[in-house]
Specification:
It is built from 1 helix and 22 strands. By secondary structure, it is mainly β.
Amino acid sequence: MVAIIINEFLKLTVKSSGAEMISIKNTITNKEYLWQGNPAYWARRAPVLFPIVGKLNNNNYRVNSESYELPQHGFARDMHFELIDHVENSLTYLLKSNSETLKVYPYKFELYIKYSLEQNKVVINYEIKNCDDDLIYFSLGAHPAFNCPLESNEKFSDYYLTFEKEESIDTLLLENGLLNGKSSPMLLNQTNLPLTTALFDQDALIFHGLKSRNVALKSYKSKHSIAIDFTGFPYLGIWSKKGGSPFVCIEPWMGIADSLGFEGSFKEKTAVRSLAKGKTFHAEYSITID
């Protein structure tokens, strides 16, 4: 099932499978900003990452004495969400724990995702409720992909990312999808990061400790801009498929992949969140189109 909201600036389309955005268009020009999932490169568009972000060591984790298995980025992106509210400028989806989720994630929860249009901005709000009898543990992330280039006369390398503040930061390095304990310098008193296909030869860029709370995708040749506000998210992933692909993902994360050889319990996982019985967790990011 697909649902649409529209205002004078943007038209947003979301599907119930994964509560995934599948289109962000300019209402006037009909220009598409969201990657359209060409399977020759990457078939997804903007998956929701829950209850993990990234990959688990051996795809397994432990809760108490029990072992469970989850694929990279968890199960929410492949599950049916219920559309519980559809008004003029917002859509709200709900995923509840059930017999299927409890087999791979032994916690009772409700995950709400609300998409709203505010002029030329898409606001994505997450709400997680603990419906269990004890603490629950989770990670949460977003994985939106954007067309890059946006114009037929441009190429990927005509684009760059610009941070709101000067940054001096390394990217955390991955090995087979897991953190290997190493890092590589990426920015040195810079605001701009030029995009090249070689940038993703070693998988995603992972930033932790950015001063900026906003990053924008811009072109040297046109005036298009896609800005992501990730306030409250401690990690930011940047990814495009190795070898050259016409999209780039800008990913606010609350959570991260396991380290190589990690054997601890789920509650000991780096950056995992805990939520007390009866409590609700909130997070929000936004996408501004200019």
